[in-house]
Amino acid sequence: MIRISTIFIAICMVLIAASLGLMVYALAGLTVPESAIVALAALTFLILYNAVSMRLRDRTDVGGQIADLSRGTADLARQVAEFGRRMGAIEARLAAIDSTGHDRVQTVATEISELGSLVRQLAVSVAAHDDLLAHATGTIVAAPAPTAYAADLTASETVAAATPTIAAKPIDAPAPAANITNAQLLVAVKNAVEANRIDLFLQPMVTLPQRKVRFYEAVARLRDDQDQVLAAGDFIGAAEAAGLMGQIDHMVMLRCVQVLRRLMVRSKDVGVFCNIAGATLSDPSAFRQCLDFLEANRALAPSLVLEFKQSVFRHLGPIESEHLAALQRLGYGFSIDNVSDLRFDPRELADRGVKFIKVPAALLLDQQQASAADIHAADLSDLLGRFGIDLVAERIEGERAVVDLLDYDVRFGQGFLFAPPRPLRPEGAATPAMEQPVSSAAAAVDAPARKEDKVGVKIEPEAIRATGNAALVSRVRPSPPSAAPAERRADAKGH
Fold it and tell me: Domain span at residue 25?
């Protein structure tokens, strides 16, 4: 579009040329054609002069712009150089920090390895000593099962890795439930349920690497008529066949709630994992009873985690899915246990309310399993964390496994390395009947006991620690079969 100034300049040049032609015609006496030629020549000159002047002016402007651009480019180059210098300094600092952190980790790993070596040497020495005593006396001794639950029931305390007790392996000693028939086992389970002989065992879950107690897993143990402890792997099959798992799970839920209330008096950050069988989830009548109880205690939903086996989530039917959705609507979170492989769909599990996944440490550290799985074990914790799911490494029994799991960014650990499942006094966390209200149950928990821990949960009285010759005498003295091997097997199977 032609600018107004250009039009004005053109009109002025035409007027000047015409005026020059008229002056020549009037003063010089030239004819009209000659005057017109003079006027055209003057107009042409003016046009050429204007074009040349505009071109020179444009060149001057372009030169100024180029100079400005050059100065801007120089400033930008200086800024880029300064930025590069600062980035180099930051990278040097990060490299120094990484080197220092790596050195510290290496130092800690070396110390942990040395500690593990000392523990192994001590274990070998104790085992050799036991063999010598057994050979001298002709008696195979077994270490008594732990009867005291350590006073560590608070989320702010650190679990101490105590030296494990080495038990001599009994010769031809069957498991408590191995020498009875299925019918006898069924009768024993029914009698235990009717007599309320269901004990609650607690095993801590600790943070890594701090090893501070954050959660407790509650596992059920039954006592038969001879007061022999039946682990979960021994009685679950018979209980499911008899349709008693719903009643057992209800009893366990009640005691978990009682324990959780006592724990939360000391710390609000503690939580309890409560196992629920797949048979209870698929039984409408049994589940309704549990659902009513959980709805009455929905205020504890953020701290009470309901745990199911991986196989339960793999074979969810319409009824099971509906029941899980009902629990999720109440605010309860879920945990997956008894994991056999690393094939997960984190998005689907998160949509169903899963908050934790427990994977055996041996499975996480198994290179063959990692290569065959869809998700590499080293990436599992980060992937699950994107969907709000925490990874828990369970069945940890060695310090070396802890060091390797830290490289996998595992936040929680559970296993015999930190503490085995230990019993809670039945009268401290149970009621005679399931129909007893929660308030009455809490009153039962508040009843006096011989010993209480820091948060008020009753525990078994500590065994008298023998030293010197008395300890040697007690070790060669025949003792009842220990429940520790069966407990370890039950812990491996889960409830």
Answer: 4-80
Task: Give the DSSP letter of residue 343.
Answer: -
Instruction: Give the Cα separation of 385 and 381 in Å (integer).
Output: 6
E strand residue ranges, 256-324: 271-275, 304-309
Q: What angle do CA 382, 388, 389 make, to 5 degrees?
A: 70
How does pLDDT run across 288-304, given as a tens digit for each residue? 999 999 999 999 999 99
- Whether 106 is covered by a domain: the verdict is no
Q: Which two tokens stand for residue 279?
A: 């048979």
Q: Please, are residues 324 and 353 in contact by the beta-carbon 8 Å criterion?
A: yes
What are the structure tokens assigned to 130, written together? 């036991």
Please list, residue by residue across 355-388, b when 16 or more beta carbons sit within 10 angstroms of its beta carbon and e when fewer do. bbbbbbbebbbeeeebeebebebeebbeebeebe
At 401, the amino acid letter reads A
For residue 87, the tally of other CB atoms under 10 A from its CB is 10
Q: Could you tell me the pTM of the whole model?
A: 0.56
Which residues are bridge partners to 412 per DSSP? 207, 392
Kindly state whether residue 124 falls inside one of the protein's structural domains.
no
Q: How far is Cα 186 from Cα 390, in angstroms, rounded to an integer?
A: 37
- Same domain? 182 vs 260: yes
Q: What is the DSSP string of 54-73?
A: HHHHHHHHHHHHHHHHHHHH
Structure tokens at 403: 């060091």
The reply to whether omega before 209 is within 30° of 0 (cis) is yes
Rounded to the nearest 10 degrees, how much is the dihedral formed by the CA atoms of 401, 406, 409, 413?
A: 50
Q: Is the pLDDT of residue 141 over 60?
A: no
Burial 427-447 (b: 16+ CB within 10 A, else e): ebbbbeeeeeeeeebeebbee
Nearest-angstrom CA–CA distance, 62 and 56: 10
pLDDT tens track for 181-223:
778 888 888 888 888 888 999 999 999 999 999 999 999 998 8
Do 313 and 414 sit in the same domain of this protein? yes
Last residue of a domain, one of 80, 101, 118: 80
Query: Could you tell me which residues come within 8 angstroms of residue 379 by beta carbon, excluding any fewer than 6 positions away?
Result: none
- The residues near 426 (Cβ < 8 Å, ≥ 6 apart) are 196, 197, 198, 199, 200
322 and 207 assigned to the same domain: yes
